[in-house]
Amino acid sequence: MESLIVIPEPTKKRLIQMMQLLLQFDKTRITSLEISELTGWKDSLIRHDLWLVGYNKGISNGYKVSDLLDSIRKILCVDSTLEDNKKNCCIVGLGRLGAALLDDDLFSESQFRIKAGFDSNINRIEILRSSFSLYPINNMANIIRQEKIIFAILCVKNKDAQNITNKLIDAKIEGIVNLTEVIVKVPSGIKVENISIINALQLLK
Amino acid sequence: MESLIVIPEPTKKRLIQMMQLLLQFDKTRITSLEISELTGWKDSLIRHDLWLVGYNKGISNGYKVSDLLDSIRKILCVDSTLEDNKKNCCIVGLGRLGAALLDDDLFSESQFRIKAGFDSNINRIEILRSSFSLYPINNMANIIRQEKIIFAILCVKNKDAQNITNKLIDAKIEGIVNLTEVIVKVPSGIKVENISIINALQLLK
Q1: Which residues contact A155 (CB under 8 A, 6 or more apart)?
Q2: Nearest-CA residue of chain B relative to A162?
Q3: How many CB pairs (< 8 A) connect A and B?
Q4: Of A53 and A88, which is predicted with more confidence?
């Protein structure tokens, strides 16, 4: 019945970050206060999130890190990083930023596998080195279907962002991580996560 | 008295994104419904945010884009992109990802100015091209002081993230955009915004 639990988006964001934090934590137990110190989130908020994960009692000597990690993984459906369960992704646009993501180390420990990179510049495709195949952007729809790619990381130039997004939608992509500075229009049902260094800097002010 | 308004963090995030959207909007008026369609946020949430900005009446024929933009800019203290008002930033770690940010176009339209890049590898500093100066990481504290740098974009290897963060804090940095996969510990008062492509992909699921 666990799949019936609807986790609010802000909680989901915190749980993902908490998972990352627990993976790096070097003790076997952790208290909500320690999580609070490491993340800056209010203690009560953390206990609310953990209550959603199934930890309905405050535990004075903290939570067992491995148990907590398993519970969060279960609730987020992060089953494992087994090759078979990985989700196929592609990188669209291999300029400076897109090319920086060709480093496969970035994704090796994750539940995601980059299956393809696309660029309109054929020379760039031939020059760049990567552990997965690179294709001309004209082949995008075919390769996405063929390689069962469901997510795209959008790194094209701002002026091409909407046009390429439309092509990705036609190719039946399910979600986009948008690294351009453009807010792209997508039909309902397609998820977009915007990543912007400028916006992040603005939040520091 | 405007500075007394405390804007909740989620509203701030939405306003920053709304600002970006308005800058790209090609009509002179926009309705909250149109903003809702473009962002996926609930209409009521948008009107709540705009109420905080000072638009306390629903306007049936929409808001004037330029007025709305001015109001949001004012509330977020985004005074202008004049050279004098720009905040000085640095990039720490010039591997593939850090080097991808050396493209000054990325920041040219923003309120931020990259003043320096740092890396422990002297060869890399000599090879890389950028419109601002690159320095060995040992000089970081001096340069940050000298160039009045207040924000850092952290692109070092995961294993070095905490160590370099400590050095940035010693150098009196005010905020960090963290592009590593490590949750870094900072004293209260120092802001950190984490940017993670893996986390963004996880949110698409």
Answers
A1: A91, A92, A93, A94, A95, A97, A98, A101, A179, A180
A2: B24
A3: 141
A4: A88
Nearest Cα of chain A lies from the Cα of B39 at a distance, in angstroms, of: 8
Q: What is the pLDDT of residue B3?
A: 46
B184 and B97 within one domain = yes
| DSSP E strands, chain B | 29-30, 63-64, 87-92, 112-119, 133-136, 151-154, 175-178, 191-194
Please identify which residue in the block is written with the tokens 């996560």.
Answer: A193
A205 is written with which tokens?
Answer: 């002010």
Q: Are residues B108 and B186 in the same domain?
A: yes
A185 neighbourhood in chain B, CB within 8 Å:
37-38
CATH number at residue B140: 3.40.50.720
Q: Are residues A95 and A56 in the same domain?
A: no
Range(s) of the domain holding residue B58: 2-75
Residue A95 and residue A67 share a domain: no
Which of B76, B100, B112 minimises the CB distance to A201? B112
Q: What is the pLDDT of residues A9-21, one digit of tens each?
A: 788 888 888 888 8
How much is the pLDDT for A2? Answer: 42
Name the domain count of chain A: 2
Q: Using 70 as the pLDDT threshold, list the residues of chain B that sit under it.
A: 1-5, 57-59, 79-83, 104
* Contact between chains at B198 and A106 (C-beta distance less than 8 A): yes
DSSP A13-31: HHHHHHHHHHHH--SSEE-
CB-closest option in A78, A188, A201 to B177: A201
Instruction: Please give the Cα distance from B155 to B141 (Å, whole number).
Output: 17
Note the pLDDT tens digit of each residue in B166-178: 999 999 999 999 9
Cα(A94)–Cα(A90) distance, integer angstroms: 11
Q: Which residues contact B39 (CB under 8 A, 6 or more apart)?
A: A183, B14, B17, B18, B21, B46
Q: Do A107 and B193 touch (CB under 8 A)?
A: no
